[in-house]
Amino acid sequence: MNTTTGKPVHLAVYDTLADWETGHATAQLARTGHEIRTVGPSSTAPVRSIGGLRVQPDLALEDLRPEDSALLILPGADLWDTTDDLAPFARTARTFLDAGVPVAAICGATAGLAREGLLDDRDHTSAISFYLAATGYAGGGRYVEADAVTDGPLITAGPTEPVAFAREILRLLGVYEGEVLDAWYRLFHDSDPAAYGVLEKAGAL
């Protein structure tokens, strides 16, 4: 469970989800005692990731409430750009942010948030600026060229930055901080052997 709120972290799952984008985050959260619950689009019927993994959601989106969650994670998926099927997840993200509950979006999910107007007044990043510009959103001036960006309760990242995405989630939830967080990032992103000793000393392995 979340050591701060006692509430689970919710991971959105849907057909064509990019299964490599959230693995670092959910694995580290689970290893540090956070419950991970998966949320399907309209039921608990299985979905299939872009990598062919079959995922059985724990609950349906309509049953998810911000007050019951520590964080909503939205992975990328082909469906973000090819249909409006995932728009309800963006609307749920608005409900979460309005309630002060964090949302973390990566890859195509950032475009979904842009279409919902959630990036117009928040610093953010994505795959590349013109990818979001194609949505017609009004937040281009808040786009940041960075591996991942946190603005208040919102985290965004591009598809090539799953480790940086996880770093921001771990920071936001208070799992690691300071030199331990930096070492975790250096180990998994840069394969820095010196980082291992820092994590071992901190009991963070």
Task: Give a description of the structure.
The protein has helices at residues 23-31, 79-82, 87-98, 108-115, 129-133, 162-172, 178-190, 193-202, and strands at 9-12, 36-40, 47-48, 54-55, 59-60, 71-74, 103-106, 148-151, 154-157. The protein has 205 residues and is α/β, with parallel strands linked by helices. The strands form 2 sheets. The protein has a 7-stranded mixed beta sheet with strand order 5-2-1-6-7-9-8, sandwiched between helices. A two-stranded antiparallel sheet has the order 3-4. Helix 1 (23-31) runs parallel beside helix 6 (162-172), helix 6 (162-172) packs antiparallel against helix 7 and helix 7 (178-190) runs antiparallel to helix 8. It is globular, with a radius of gyration of 16 Å. The two termini are 18 Å apart.
What kind of sheet is the major sheet? 7 strands, mixed
Total count of strands = 9
For the biggest β-sheet, the strand order reads: 5-2-1-6-7-9-8
The low-confidence runs, each spanning 5 or more residues with pLDDT under 50, are: none
Structural class, from helix and strand content? alpha/beta
SSE sequence, one letter per element? EHEEEEEHHEHHEEHHH
Give the overall pLDDT as a whole number: 96
Number of separate helices:
8
**DSSP helix fraction:** 25-40%
Q: Give the strand content.
A: 15-25%
Q: How would you sum up the global shape?
A: globular
Gyration radius from CA atoms, angstroms: 16 Å
Distance between the termini: 18 Å
